Each structure stands twice: as C-alpha cells, then as structure tokens.
Amino acid sequence: MPIARSRLAQWVVQPGVARQPLVDRLAFGLTQGQVLHAGETPVQQLDPGKGKTQRASLGAYRSNDREGGAADLRLRLPDEPQRPACP
After folding, report:
1. Which of 1, 2, 9, 3 shows the shortest CA–CA distance to 49?
2. Which of 36, 52, 57, 68 lies 20 to 30 Å (CA to CA) from residue 45?
3. What range does the domain containing 17 cover?
4. Do the domain assignments include residue 84?
C-alpha cells in the first residue's frame, strides 16, 4: 500500500515533538553543572527531493559524572555558516 511522503514525515515529527519537554529538561540539567563536555561528528544527511546529501553534524553533550546526576544529550545539527552560542 503506498504511503504519502507527508504521512511518513508526520510519523517522524510527532514523536520528536512529544519528546521535546524531555530534551529541554536534559539541556537545562546540562547547563547547571560546572563542567560540560561536548563533541561533534560530521555526517552526510540525505537532502530529500534533490537526490544529494548535505553536510550535518551529530553533537553529543555530557555533564561531569562527579557532580552527581550526570546528564547526556545527543543532537543532529544541520551545518550552518554560523552556529548559535551555547547557553
């Protein structure tokens, strides 16, 4: 049975929207510590409709284990000429 691209997109977006409060809470927890570890890895991301890939990054952020209650957060960030400053 054919499934419209818009329907598939909704199936991907809806769980992400539902998880946003959790991501916000993790990000808040990360900014409360004295130490923040960060890393980025460049990856190729499909660019729908163009038949090509574009450059993106996977970001990982972690607070310090010694602070008690360490937090992890991993994000996919599209490459931009200028990234916003960390909070």
Report:
1. 9
2. 36
3. 5-78
4. no
The full 3-state SS of the chain, as one line of letters, equals CCCCHHHHHHHHHHHHHHHHHHHHHHHHHHHHCCCEEEEEEEEEEEECCCCEEEEEEEEEEEECHHHCCCCEEEEEEECCCCCCCCC
40, 56 in Cβ contact below 8 A? no
Query: Domain tally for the chain?
Result: 1
Q: Can you give the pLDDT at residue 81?
A: 47
Q: Which carries the bigger pLDDT value, residue 77 or residue 31?
A: 31
Residue 86 maps to a domain: no
Count of C-beta atoms within a 10 Å radius of residue 11: 9
Categorize the per-residue pLDDT at 67 as very low, low, confident or very high, splitting at 50, 70 and 90: low
Share of the chain above pLDDT 90, in %: 3
Is residue 20, in this structure, part of any structural domain at all? yes
Residue 56 placed within a domain: yes
